[in-house]
Write a structure and sequence with these properties.
By secondary structure, the chain is mostly helical. The chain folds into two domains: about 160 residues, Ribonuclease III domain (Ribonuclease iii, N-terminal Endonuclease Domain, Chain A, Orthogonal Bundle); about 70 residues, 2-Layer Sandwich (Double Stranded RNA Binding Domain), CATH 3.30.160. The protein is built from twelve helices and three strands. A three-stranded antiparallel beta sheet has the order 1-2-3, covered by helices on one side. Helix 5 crosses helix 9, helix 5 packs across helix 10 and helix 11 packs parallel to helix 12. The longest helix has 22 residues. The protein is globular. The chain starts with 5 loop residues before the first helix and ends with a helix. The model has no long low-confidence stretch (mean pLDDT about 90).
Length: about 240
């Protein structure tokens, strides 16, 4: 490992403590924390980046969350299970967890990525968190990954499931009709990520101005999040 990475690697034991998991194969931890920009700049070290582990971790996370929802929301239809999972396993949700774990301080980044603020980029942090889940699965199997993942996500899942039945788009439309304002317009601003893991970015316009933004793994969930943000803003201004 390059000496320039010493400060980052010194943070890894603290990260393991936060995850309540100690790696048997520490090369997997190093791989999960290595961004492509660092691997490219230090090609002579032949370091794998974390993209393959991120791909695996995404699948492991979806399975853990899906299994939990099947066990706990026994009377909920498929659409509701999908909504709860999509709301929690989202770019904002993953990035927020990664920040709470201080993953950014332990990432191995190239100089350009470092200068551009890569340690706090939501997409980069979310990918690193999923890579860690993939690394734990590879290191010690599904049950070990589940033990790490559930304590991190259960509070968010419980909150999302408590929102069952709340259609923020309908509520926003009703609010605007009651206050004699134009109906909302939803605009797809951007979509990021690979085809198997697309994140949609939506703005909601009211009277021609942006009043809320949302992200989600489906356009519908992104629109719901944007409508929720717009309702909060309009309520504060009323």
């Amino acid at each position: 490992m390059n000496l320039s990475a010493r400060a980052e690697t010194e943070n890894w034991p603290r990260l393991e403590e936060s995850l309540n998991y100690s790696f048997h194969n520490r090369a997997l931890l190093a791989e999960a924390m290595t961004h492509r920009s660092y691997a490219n700049e230090h090609f002579e070290e032949n370091l794998p980046d974390n993209e393959r582990l991120e791909f695996l971790g995404d699948a492991v996370l979806d399975l853990v969350i899906s299994q939990y929802l099947m066990k706990t929301l026994t009377n909920s239809p498929e659409g509701e299970l999908t909504r709860v999972r999509a709301e929690v396993v989202s770019l904002p949700g993953l990035a927020g967890l990664a920040r709470s774990l201080d993953i950014g301080s332990g990432l191995l980044l190239g100089r350009g990525e470092e200068r551009s603020g890569g340690r706090d980029k939501s997409s980069l942090l979310a990918d690193a968190l999923e890579a860690l889940f993939g690394a734990i699965f590879t290191d010690n199997g599904f049950e070990a990954a589940e033990v790490v993942i559930l304590p991190l996500f259960v509070p968010m899942l419980q909150q999302a499931s408590n929102d069952e039945g709340q259609d923020y788009k309908s509520r926003l439309q009703e609010f605007l009709q009651a206050t004699h304002r134009d109906l909302p317009v939803y605009v797809l601003v951007d979509s990021t990520g690979p085809a198997h893991d697309r994140i949609y970015h939506v703005d909601v316009l009211v009277d021609g101005r942006t009043h809320g933004s949302g992200h989600g793994r489906t356009k519908k969930s992104a629109e719901q999040t944007a409508a929720k943000a717009a309702l909060a803003q309009l309520d504060n201004n009323s």
